[in-house]
Amino acid sequence: MTQVDLPEARDACPTTAQKRLAEGALLVDVREADEVAACGFAGCAVMTIPLSQFEARFAEIPRDREVILACASGDRSLKATYFLMYQGYAKVTNMKHGLARWVARGFPVTGSATAVSAGGCGCGSGTCC
User: Fold this and answer.
1) What is the mean pLDDT of residues 44-64?
2) Per-residue pLDDT tens over the stretch 10-49
3) What is the DSSP letter of 32?
4) Catalytic-residue membership of 13
């Protein structure tokens, strides 16, 4: 197998991400369905593709549009960002600190923001939020 050297992934804080989303970028939430049901991103165009399904479904993500990947803390979305970069996507950015910081900044959500602020990020570590 040939090694591919990828540049460092671009990242953006939720404030910068929200500006890009308002300009037409697409948010791809890679959290699992139960996490999204508890608390989700709102106020922007959102596509949900759980990381557990990402390899099978990534082709649903447009290549010609700026894409911001997000999860609860930014860790899973960083993996998805690098995966898309490896697949040749050029307009991808990881949202640093994910939904936890989005909620902390007071940006719009669906469901209950307390699910996130109470540490319900879903990553399993219990320490990322």
Assistant:
1) 97
2) 999 999 999 999 999 999 999 999 999 999 999 999 999 9
3) -
4) no
Whole-structure pTM value:
0.87
Among candidate residues 70, 64, 57, the one with its CA nearest the CA of residue 91: 64
> Which candidate in 39, 71, 123, 129 is catalytic?
71
Contacts of 8 (CB under 8 A, 6+ apart): none
DSSP 8-state class, residue 29? E
Strands (E), 1-129: 10-12, 26-29, 39-41, 46-48, 67-70, 92-95, 109-111
Whole-angstrom distance, CA of residue 86 vs CA of residue 74: 18
Residue 12 neighbours by CB distance under 10 Å: 18
